[in-house]
Amino acid sequence: MGKGKKWVLVKQFDGLPKRTDLEIQEFDIPELKDGDILLQSVVLTVDPYMRGWSRILKSGDTMIGEIVGKVIESKDAKTKVGEHVLVRAGWVTHAVVPGKNTLKAPDLPEGVPLSLCIGTLGMPGLTAYFGLLNACDLKPTDTVYVNAAAGAVGSVVGQIAKIKGCKVIGSAGSDEKVKYLKEELGFDEAYNYKVVTPDKLPAELKKLAPNGIDVFFENVGGEASSIVYSFMNKHGRAGICGTISNYNSPGNTKPKVTEFVHHTIYKSIRIQGFLVTDFYAKRDEALKEMAQWVKEGKLKYRECKFEGFESMYDAFMALFTGKNTGKVVINL
Q1: Among 134, 125, 135, 202, which Cα is nearest to 158's?
Q2: What is the rounded distance in angstroms from the CA atom of residue 10 to the CA atom of residue 199?
Q3: How far is residue 294's CA from residue 129's CA, in Å, rounded to a whole number?
Q4: Parts of the chain with a pLDDT under 70
Q5: What is the pLDDT of residues 149-175, one digit of tens each?
Q6: 3-state SS, residue 40
Q7: Do residues 73 and 34 touch, judged by C-beta distance below 8 A?
C-alpha cells in the first residue's frame, strides 16, 4: 500500500513544547478491510486543545488532531473516491479509517477554501456558535466579552455576537490584532492585553463596559479573567471554552479559581463548561446558517497558513507564541 508519515510524541511536553519532544516517522499504510477508506491528508490543523489532551498520549503515539482528507480508495459503500471527509486521524499524511467514523466535508460557498472545513466552518467555528448561543444563552441586548479574540474561536464569537445585535468587547495580544478586531470584524471595543495589564484592566473595563458584562466567553484563564468576573452583571453567563494561558504551566503555578468564586454567588452568575461535541446533533443546522453568513459577508475569516507536513511543529508553536491571527492551517 505504500508509506505514510506521522508526527509522534517522543516524550511528554514540559512547559512550552520543544521540537525534540516530537519526531516524524514513516509507517506502512495498512490494507483496507470492508468498510474502510484510505485518506490522503489535504489540510491539517493545530488547535490549543491538543496541548492539554496530549497528556493522555504515551511515547510513540501519534499526535492528536483532525484532518481534511481526500478519499483515495474506498471499501465503504457510503463513501466515494474523490470525496473530502473530516476525521480525527492525528498528524498524518495518510490514514485508513472506517468510513462510518468520518464526517462529510460541508458544502462551502463558492470561492471559499477547503481549509474552512476545519476553521470557521469547522470545529472552531462550531465551538463559537454553540458556546455562545447555547452554553451562554445569548440575548440581543447582551454585552459580550471575549478574550483571545483574534484567534480561531474568539474571532467567530465576536462576529456572531454582532450578527445577533450585541455589543462586543475583545482582548488580543498586539495593536495589529486590535485593529483587525475593530476595523475588519466590527468589534465595538478591543484592547491589547500586553499593554492593558491586569493592574490596569479595571480602569479599562470601566471605560469599555460602563454598563457591565453579560456574557464572558473564556478562552484564556489567568488573573485577567478573574478581574472580568467582577464586571459581570447580575445573572451573567460565562462559557468556559479553554484556558490557553496555563496550558504550558506546571501544575503548582496555575491560578486558583477561588479569586472570582464570590462574584458568581452574589451576582448569580452561571458558569458553563462545554465541549463542541455536546451539540453535534445540531451540527448540520449550525453549519448551514454559518455558511450563509460567510456567503453574505457577515462572517469573515483569516487564516494563518503553513505549507508542508514538516511545518506542523512551527504551526503548533504559533498558537502559544501569539504569532497567529485567525485559524492556523497546514496545507499539504
Answers
A1: 125
A2: 40
A3: 13
A4: 244-260
A5: 999 999 999 999 999 999 999 999 999
A6: strand
A7: no
